[in-house]
Amino acid sequence: MILIVFLLLLSFIPVHPYMSDRFSAYEEYVWYQGIKGTIPLTNNYPVEIKESGAVYENNYSKFLLKKIDFEKTLKNQNIFLDASVGASYHDSIAPTISISPKVEFSLTDNIEASVKVFLSNDIDNSRGFPIKPFKEKIIAGFERGYVKYSNEKLFVLFGRMDYHSSFSKDNSLLFDYKAVPMDGIYLSGEANRYFSYDFKYASLGSMKLDSTYLFEGEDIDVISRYLSFHKIILTLKDYLRLSFSESCIFGRKSIGNILDYTFPFFIFYGEQNNIDINDNILWAFDVNYNYCRVNLSYSLLVDDYQYEYEGTKDLEPPELGHIVRIDAPVCCAVMSLSYMRINAWVYNQRYPWNRYIFNSKNIGDEMGPDIQGIEGNGLFAYSSTGRVNFKVSYFEKGDNYSSSDWIFPISDTYYYKQIGI
Q1: In a domain, 158, yes or no
Q2: From 11's CA, which of 108, 246, 316, 361 has a CA 20 to 30 Å away?
Q3: Is 421 inside any structural domain?
Q4: Which pTM was predicted?
Q5: For residue range 221-271, what is the model confidence (pLDDT) as tens digits?
Q6: For the chain, how many structural domains are there in total?
Q7: Helix (H) or strand (E) segment spanning residue 31
Q8: Spatial separation of the C-alpha atoms in residues 84 and 321, rounded to whole Å
Q9: At a CB cut-off of 8 Å and minimum separation 6, what does 265 contact?
Q10: Cα–Cα distance between 187 and 193 in angstroms, integer?
């Protein structure tokens, strides 16, 4: 009861409008410069802080720069508080309050450590953190924590973090910022101005299976889960960037086999073919083109079930996902329009431990597969200290989810009838 009263009292404390964003101020400013064509647009988040680059004499630019200064001030104090207040309806309308103290400190010029915890009365656990409610009223845990080394060419992080991979910023077919933070190692490097790369390896914990499976020559009822991801980014011109990504979720019983997909420059699908184990591999092809301060991005997701050998007939529906998006900075605003389609059987797989979910939440797009829709978004800075956000969207959702029971899509049932999207 005391904790509930404490949270209710905190709900009356003014929360600075710059806080509670998934993206940092600097990351948002990098994206803003990218869609304006000042710098090549990145599809790697988090972004390392470098020079701020160009300064635009409009309220939107001034708002972002003040936001950067505000976050730098907090960071210089080593510890700061992030808070958010909302409302939800379950059995009754009640305030939802989250508080996240964060500590950052430098160990050397190139090494930094960070810890972020959270306290919330959102017992539905909308982010999917691996926690249990305290007294069925409060949840608390570690949202982020890592040790990071960085220089001009290399970035290495070990610990728990959020990760995002898309030119589209708010949409991602492989990794979304709304996914559950994972424990692991993240490496990003830049060989030269034309070539850079990303690598991530994470533990997804263990899974207790509903029934016994024959795997690696023995019957199992529990298995450890892992995720490995790598990406190559090519900057052909300042206005044209391409990337190829490969992500693999796999389960292993033997500790000696957990490093099957750990070398960043191997093709995972080739490795899977050589070790002859049915893991879940996804490919993503991304392109970003900037023309006259209008930014166009496209992402194609291909599930490995799409191109595996299936005999003389190919009866399955396409296992593909698409996002096409246009962003245009207009005076003191940014206007965006996007279309997304993810077919019904993407992310899923016959083995439950290989499905593209973590703690019952989607790792890729938060709405999962079997969906298509269009979304318009507008961000308008009415002054150097405030802005408003307008969003309109329409989506069609089928009955398939990343966790749906697996039925082979190549059966005759799916040959004659379209199932989902």
Answers
A1: yes
A2: 361
A3: no
A4: 0.81
A5: 889 999 999 999 999 988 899 999 999 999 888 776 777 888 777 788 777
A6: 1
A7: helix 25-36
A8: 33
A9: 230
A10: 18
